[in-house]
Amino acid sequence: MFLENTINHAKQSGWMEVICGSMFSGKTEELIRRLRRAEMAGQNVEIFKPKLDVRYAAEEVVSHNQNKIRSTPVDSPNEILLLGSNCDVVGIDEAQFFDESIVEVANKLANSGIRVVIAGLDMDFMGRPFGPIPNLMATAEYVTKVHAICKRTGNLANYSMRISTSKDLVELGETESYEAVSRRVFNDEFLNK
């Protein structure tokens, strides 16, 4: 899905798109797809990610199936505002790792006429809304929730269940630390412990 806001070009403003869901659901894949299409359309695109996310590459956003796009790692959302203010499209991956100021930054960019495409986990490993994502979803014009498939049940998976022993809110990891599971599995395995 490529979203184009085409109602009144003379008074065109920017907008926000949020892509959310569990781990292994294709959030980053969809972010990359949308940003590549904007690049193909000749738009000036910049992509940002939290500096702490170095799972695949320091200066690339990389999906689980190894699609990648160049990105700029940043420590704080204010850097995005500074570096992305002259773009047509700003992409932000792993937005759940930023503090709440990402909401204000994304809205300022959109208010200045920029299309802002944001991807992030909507729930943490305990099934609670994660960081700024709920507020980003509330202020976005478009929200896409993607799902993984639960390997245990074959149903849609919308929970990122931690299978490691860490209790830290943020633990960077892949299949060694997390499993995408359905509601039933999450309730049986996590909530009933």
TrEMBL record:
Residues holding substrate: 170-173, 178
One term of GO molecular function: thymidine kinase activity
Entry's localization field: Cytoplasm
Keyword ATP-binding part of the UniProt annotation: yes
Keyword entries, A-Z: ATP-binding, Cytoplasm, DNA synthesis, Kinase, Nucleotide-binding, Transferase
Binding site for ATP: 21-28, 93-96
Key word Transferase present: yes
Active site: 94
PANTHER family, per the entry: THYMIDINE KINASE, THYMIDINE KINASE, CYTOSOLIC
Database matches in NCBIfam families: PRK04296.1-1 (NF003296)
Subunit (UniProt): Homotetramer.
Protein name as catalogued: Thymidine kinase
Organism the protein comes from: Kaistella jeonii
Phylogenetic placement of the source organism: Bacteria, Pseudomonadati, Bacteroidota, Flavobacteriia, Flavobacteriales
